[in-house]
Design brief:
By secondary structure, the protein is an all-alpha fold. It has nine helices and no strands. The protein folds into two domains: 51 residues, Orthogonal Bundle (Arc Repressor Mutant, subunit A); 143 residues, Tetracycline Repressor, domain 2. It starts with 6 loop residues before the first helix and ends in a 6-residue tail after the last helix.
């Protein structure tokens, strides 16, 4: 009986190899041949699953997203079924910062891929819905949890844009070795203070 092939597993294996190549050698080294060698499969197999380099990039970004979602799920789980919005956002955004080697590796790859999509609108389009959904979620948490919204001192949508921009910027500086993790977390807390007011627990 022929062995059943797990196509999802094969695609993930190839995407992992792609990310290793990008992290270790730079995005310019990513090619069907290099990725096939890293995955220890034939170039033909890579091409069977990904017809173009752009298809590989979009799938690899999806793998990074799935890893981040799993990390966030684990970080938020201890907060219970109905966490306070500020605590939820703090746990989620802190988990997305590249504060350990595993997250730094994924962060380097994600940053390289986002730079790649900046000059390829068709590839970038695959990320638009994801970005919009994240922005809407963060804005909803701010609207639900910030006492500064009621008197107009905080606009949920604009604050969400700023909070995500701060998180992304901190990630870039941590990846570059400009800030240690504790500085990034302190800056994140300061931004949350501007949105939710000072945290009495600190």
């Amino acid at each position: 009986m022929p062995k059943r092939v797990d196509h999802r597993e094969r695609r993930a294996l190839i995407a992992d190899a792609l990310m290793r190549v990008a992290a270790e050698q730079g995005l310019e080294a990513v090619s069907l041949r290099h990725v096939a060698a890293a995955a220890e499969v034939s170039p033909g197999m890579v091409q069977h699953y990904f017809r173009t380099r752009d298809e590989m990039m979009v799938f690899a970004l999806a793998v990074v997203r799935e890893r981040n979602e799993e990390r966030v799920r684990r970080a938020v789980e201890p907060l219970g079924a109905t966490p306070a919005p500020r605590a939820l956002l703090r746990a989620m955004l802190a988990e997305l910062l590249p504060l350990d080697e595993e997250r730094r590796a994924d962060g380097r790859v994600a940053l390289a891929f986002l730079a790649y999509t900046a000059v390829r609108p068709a590839v970038a389009a695959a990320l638009h819905d994801e970005t919009a959904a994240l922005l809407a979620f963060v804005a909803g948490q701010i609207a639900a949890g910030s006492p500064l919204v009621a008197d107009g001192r905080v606009d949920p949508e604009r604050s969400a844009v700023g909070l995500l921009a701060v998180m992304e910027g901190l990630g870039i500086y941590v990846l570059g070795g400009h800030y240690p993790p504790e500085t990034a977390l302190a800056a994140l807390d300061a931004q949350l203070d501007l949105i939710f007011g000072a945290d009495p627990a600190r």
